[in-house]
Amino acid sequence: MTEPVETHLKDYKRPDFNVETVELHADIFETETFVTASLGVKKSPEAADGASFLLDGRELELLSIELDGRTLTDGEYTLEGEVLTLQAPPDVFCLTTKVKIHPETNTSLEGLYLADGTFLTQCEAEGFRRITFFPDRPDVMSSYRCTVSADKEKYPVLLANGNLVDEGELPGGRHFATWEDPHKKPSYLFAMVAGDLACREDTFTTASGREVALKFHVDHQDADKCGHAIESLKKSMAWDEQTFGLEYDLDIYMVVATHSFNAGAMENKGLNVFNSKYVLAKPETATDTDFQGIEGVIGHEYFHNWTGNRVTLCNWFQLSLKEGLTVFRDQEFSSDMGSRAVKRIADVRGLRASQFPEDAGPMAHPIRPESYIEMNNFYTATVYNKGAEVIRMIHTFLGPEGFRKGMDLYVARHDGSAVACEDFVAAMEDASGVDLSRFRLWYSQAGTPTVTVTRAFDAETSRYTLTFTQKVPDTPGQANKKAMQIPVRMGLLGGNGAPIPLTLEGEASPGPLERVLSLSSALESFTFTGVEKEPVPSLFRGFSAPVNQVTDLTEAELIFLLAHDQDSFNRWDAAQQLYANTILGMVADLEKGEPLALSTDLVAAVQKTLTHPTLDKALIAQALTLPSETELGDRMAEIDVDGIHAAREFVADTLAVALKEGWRSVYEACKEDGPYCPDTQSMAKRRLKGLCLSYLSRVESPAFVMDAFASAANMTDELAALTVLAGMDAPESDEAMDRFYGAWKGDTLVLDKWFTAQSLSNRPGTLERVATLMDHPDFDIKNPNKVRALIGAFCQANPWHFHRLDGKGYDLLADTVIALNTINPSIAARMASGFNRWKRYDEKRQGLMKARLERIKGTENLANGVFEIVSKALA
Ligand code: 0A1
Ligand code: ZN
Fold this sequence. Notes:
Blueprint: E1 7-8, E2 17-28, E3 33-43, E4 53-56, E5 61-67, E6 70-71, E7 77-80, E8 83-86, E9 92-101, E10 111-115, E11 118-122, E12 141-151, E13 157-160, E14 163-170, E15 174-186, E16 192-195, E17 198-205, E18 211-218, H1 227-244, E19 252-258, E20 265-266, E21 271-275, H2 288-303, E22 312-313, H3 319-337, H4 340-359, E23 371-372, H5 381-414, E24 418-419, H6 421-432, H7 441-444, E25 450-458, E26 463-471, E27 486-493, E28 503-504, E29 515-519, E30 523-529, E31 536-538, E32 548-550, H8 555-564, H9 568-592, H10 600-610, H11 617-623, H12 629-634, H13 641-658, H14 660-669, H15 680-696, H16 702-710, H17 715-726, H18 731-744, H19 748-759, H20 766-773, H21 784-797, H22 799-802, H23 808-823, H24 825-832, H25 843-857, H26 864-874
Parallel strand pairs: 2-12, 18-19, 19-21, 22-24, 25-32
Antiparallel strand pairs: 1-23, 2-3, 3-9, 4-8, 5-6, 5-9, 7-8, 10-11, 11-16, 12-15, 13-16, 14-15, 17-18, 20-21, 25-26, 26-30, 27-29, 27-31, 28-30
The structure holds O-methyl-L-tyrosine and zinc ion.
């Protein structure tokens, strides 16, 4: 086998030839599809004399090739591996190729594929080369005209990007539609669809008074589940106008939903393709989390129209330019639509659960990676979520107005072109006058910095000093890193919890009650004057930087912050630190054979929070949710799977018993009558009710939970009860599973929840049940949602069962990766990263995981993406 090649940022060069126009004909038949592409090509003025024109092509059968109407003979072009080369073509020419492809057998879900009776495309990052020969790179931007033809009865709906300009009948019961996109775009934003789909329509009138047709194409049986997605789209369109002055630029916006999709959704120009999970919802079938997810992802894809499509990327190393920025935009949108603090907590939970471990593992990379073997492996939490944190820090340093000016300048300067992360930072700097030179290190240095804080109080001079030490850890290929520029949003709390004015030495008093300190060297101190009594510091408010904060705050101080901090996020974070310190302390006690006991102060603090008269119920629920076993493991040098499980269960059981009355009365108080409503307050109630139920299940009979399950009036309540029941070792558990399956067996998205509930269970025999479910008629390894729901959930979120000492959990994952290697390499690689943290475990488990990694690495015809993950893990 030839070693896969790595692509490096340092080798990037602008293209020698640009494709100005693309005229595409896709003729779809049951057992083959013909694609004819006519490319209007122009040589770049900077290209050297005799430069070659390179086109990418993967799994294409070349049927003919013509240059300016003349058929090329063998010697006039070469086709080696996946590259078609024209040596020294003219400065301006038209190249026409005809190829045959097989979407009907394409299980990779990239390029053109057939799923559940619909043909559709996925071109990001490098899928267009599976449709036709093309310089498949984002800095080649072209005008597209696309004609799709297919059988009229089986595929009445024919779509592509832009506006419909022609349609008609063809012989043999076929028909065609021609679409023209007035905006130039890179090939990764191309899309076409042929299927038998229902269409739900609405309109949006833009700020300047243009009417945009909104068209959602879904399976006929799902036509009643589009309302929330359509409303979310309208809200997104209005929000981008109000917040950033950005208006939609076509007269039509189409969304197509499919059950078979590798990711969440795709922002193809004017024709988004969505994983049905992020479109379809009604109260009986979707949870509050689903409703919120839909709003966020619909927003995300819509916001890409400006940050990604109008201003695009010059190469894939710049992916965070569009993704970090667009995630930041969708986070802000969701915050404005709902509760800002709750959204922030959810995002930080996600970052700590998936990005922090990535940054500490074998795949650690900067938000702008320097090399890749398989680009699909770099659609990561680092590029997306840490990328969004980097944008958020710029927002913090510049303030909302400075940031808005920066956005305006960025769009004005770069509209219609393919640019780099550096262009974004430069626009922010130029518009605001804020120097971001040291800040740029966030783009090039990987690893989560650790910031250690010490404090000193001098009662005599009324001075209070905070000292920050930062360390950016070594990561693969990067050692001895420089200190970063880190914003610390902070406040100081006085004895009664009131904020103390923050007057830095040399400043006029009184200073503000909250401020942002900027760290930029390895060691830095800040002294506040006029501090009469030793305060409690509240640091990194709202998680102002993606760092690990290390403080010596005592249990009493954390309880004080939980009760009094003006910053809701930090109240929650104080609770998380309390729980983590407590549980990890118990893990050490267990090791020493000491008995476990929960501090009465902590129990009292939990009680106070639970019954707080004014605190937002969603915040209460978040503050009373213990960190997951995975998160706790991350805080240990060597992860003690069993110790963490035992200690966490002990804390949960103790809180359940000690506060039984409290859980019960809050549970009752959160019950609602009336129809389901996905508004912020009702969601908060349901969240808290679900949490109470999970604590109550530890002290009440299974029948009590079964009752809750049976009386649920919406999917949020139903799934909360089902998930709790799934973990109970009682006959009610199986009964609930059977009833749920019986009720929902026709709804594939709801069945995903059924699979996940079982795979997350703490019951004995969970692994065996997961293995059995893989043979269930409703499980389909070709469907990524199913793989994620059953196997992904088990391996990522059920560490106690996955890391079983007999290695059977590891076998299940390795077998799945090997099976997926040929079916869907991109999902195979994603699943393979489930072993990435193997070096963090005890010797026995390390040995077991290493053996599975080696087994995968030795698999014949290993896909490049899987090779990249496992070879980096083993390095
Ligand atoms: N750009 C999309 C994400 C996406 C990436 C790759 C895909 O297929 C391999 C699909 C979607 C987004 O950020 O929403
Ligand atoms: Zn995106």
